[in-house]
Description:
Blueprint: H1 4-18, E1 27-31, H2 38-45, E2 50-55, E3 63-65, E4 68-72, H3 78-81, E5 87-92, H4 102-112, E6 113-123, E7 136-138, E8 143-145, H5 158-161, H6 164-173, H7 178-189, H8 199-207, E9 212-220, H9 226-234, E10 245-253
Parallel strand pairs: 1-2, 1-5, 2-4, 5-6
Antiparallel strand pairs: 3-4, 6-10, 7-8, 9-10
Amino acid sequence: MMNEKRREEMARKIQAMARYGGFGGATVLEIGADRDSISARMLLDAGAARVISTNFRSDWPEGTEGAIERRRLDAREIGERFAAASLDAVFGVAVLEHIDGLERFFSGVAKAMRPGGLMYAHGGPIWSSSRGHHVVVTGETRSYRFGVNELNPIPDWAHLHLSRSEMIDTLTARDVPPGDAEKIAFFVYDGDEVNRKGYRAICDAFDASELKLVERLDNAFKPPPPELLAKIERGAYGGEQRYEVSGVTFVARA
C-alpha cells in the first residue's frame, strides 16, 4: 500500500508533469507503479485515456481493469516491448536509481514515444547523494531504513568512500550487531536494489539518447564538507561532480 507521503509526492509529480502539456486523451506508460494502482488512477484523473501500469517485480499482478492495464515490465525493454511511436507519455517517480542500464532505457523511451511525446522520469535518492545507499534491511532485532533518521545507521556519503569491510567496522562501532552490519554492507555494495549510478553518470546516459531535453530538475541540498568531498573523490565512486543532488528529474520530448 502506498503510504501517505508517497501518495502526496506522486500527486505533486503528476501535477508538475501536467504543466508541460497535460494528459488529455494520452496513452501513458507508468514505470515503477504501485500495486494498488493509486498513481495510475491519479493519471486518469489528470486526463489520461489509458495507463499501462508496470513494475519489474516477479510477483507483479497482470491484468486489465477499465482504462488501466497492468503489465510486468523491465524498463530497459521498453524499446522492444512497445511499437515505435505507440506511447504519448512515459511517467516514473523514484525509478532512475533502480534501472541498471539507463542508456537502454532512455533510448527505448525515445523509440516508443510518438514524436512530441513527453517523458517525466525521476530518480532519488541517487547513488552519489548522501543517502544514495538506499538501505532497507530487516536485521535480527531491528530494521534499518535510509529515509528515517533514527533507523539509518550509515553516515552521510559513507557508502561512497568506505570499502565493504570499512562499512562493517563503522556500523559495528555504532552498535549495529555484526550480523546486521554484514547484511547492510551486502545490501549497499552487492544487492540489486540500486544501480550505483551517480549524478554525472545518469546525466551522461540521458545525453547519449535521442530524447530532447525540456528541463532537468535537480533536488539539491547541502554538499559534503571539503574534507569528506576529498575522500569521496579518491574513492571508487568519485567523479560524479554534484554530491549535493539527491534527486534528478528529466522532462524530455521524443
